[in-house]
Automatic annotation (TrEMBL):
Keywords: ATP-binding, Glutathione biosynthesis, Ligase, Nucleotide-binding. It comes from Pollutimonas harenae. This is Glutamate--cysteine ligase. Belongs to the glutamate--cysteine ligase type 1 family. Type 1 subfamily. The lineage of its organism: Bacteria, Pseudomonadati, Pseudomonadota, Betaproteobacteria, Burkholderiales. Residues 13-373 form the Glutamate--cysteine ligase domain. SUPFAM superfamilies: Glutamine synthetase/guanido kinase (SSF55931).
Amino acid sequence: MTSSHPRLALLGQHSSVLQGVLRGIEKEGLRVDEHGKLAQTPHPKTLGSALTNPRITTDYSEALLELITGTHNSTESLMAELEQTHRFVAQSLEGELIWNQSIPATLPPEADIPIAWYGTSNSGLLKHVYRRGLAERYGKAMQCIAGVHYNFSVPEQLWELLEIEGASAKQRRSKGYLAQIRNFTRYSWLLMYLFGASPAMAKDFIPDADQYLQAFDATTLYLPYATSLRMSDLGYQSNKAQSELQLCYNDLETFLTRMHAAVTTPWPEYEAIGTHRNGEWIQLNTNIIQIENEYYSNIRPKRTTGRGERPATALAERGVQYIEVRCLDIDPVSPVGILPETSRFMDAFLLFCAIEPSPSFANNGYCTDSHDNFGSVVKEGRKPGLTLVQEGRPISLADWGVELIERITPYARLLDQALDSGERHTQAVLAQQAKLTDSALTPSALLLANMRDQGLSLHEYTLQQSLQHRETLRAQPLSNDEQHAYEQMAQASFAEQKHLEEADTEDFDSYVARFHAALKDN
């Protein structure tokens, strides 16, 4: 059924407001050598300082690149910047390339996976020690999983147009984004079906994984109907402390209260580890999570923070500014990990989630059905006849998916109208219909089919693709001006890191204590 909610009609009368929609991408990717082995080299100097370069940094590992775009008012400019940064990196890496798959195929022993280093400033050491804590809690291998994070915001006028209740613009905006997050939670299983691309993993990636997965070949395990093992409970969510943490998206106050409890409540297993070993910091604290970012959710309410500012503090003081979608796998067929069509679908899907009615969750803010639907799709989304639960009743994945595509399509049309983009958003949404009719067309199915047809393991297939993508990116060198701009950004980032290190007058122990105290003061 096509949505006919009054809000959609109202938006149609004011579609120009959608010109203010902004989107951005943070794309992760492991550096590997030309044999597909994890790079043991430091973050390349040509890429600048991982601490202060606004476009090129690292995530968990020294080898896990994170390429960050600015915010853009069109998919075209967004993808152009993402590609430009990838081209700069491809030209800069010597004897290395970016692994174009969410799950690493072959890793060295845990001890040889390098944790990211950010220099000797207090803010740099905080990032490094936090990552040491992640290694203690979850193991290094799990931290090498990569994905695409999609950031999305709507202009303030949209929340006013929807007449959301609230005493201030900040309250109305935060309420609007949390309603969007609730709808995302209801429907995000669809993203995993349509775009999940990690149905397989290396045999030795997770200990005893062969108890849960099937053998694809001598070195690869998989689930025959899986869409995204990256997002399954085989990974982060198998951690007991994380699995018992249930945040609430009914209102910002409850969300922040539960987040505060998570970062201030000790967890026995982490207390047993302690914060120091042989006189060195090994985790920032012994609580359920060390800092807010340790909570591995599919989506986050976000607010830009200053250096050293806690995310919860920023949200409490200034409200939600945008949302960060964290469940997208790297698309193996794209040299930059995401296709323009996926970006356009995401915009229509997220606008749909923002505008459609979004009642609060019962059950203390935890939506069991949505959690179970998501879990089913990542592990067996392509299983013939798979049923999900919609408002307490069973429904086939295919039927619900078709219904959602019909409801999302009007929002795509409004985006096309507002952005003067022809029918690109509409076509991007309607193109997904075929995947719901034939699961063999999904990225996860195509990946397995290509591996099978070519007789290749996950490692061999991904290495072959990653090498091809590097050549594609290198085939289009940056202009002199573009190259110079990236080089200048890299040099400026080193100067900024040096300034931070020289300006620090506080010892690290005091800095950490003050960092923790800042949260308690809220």
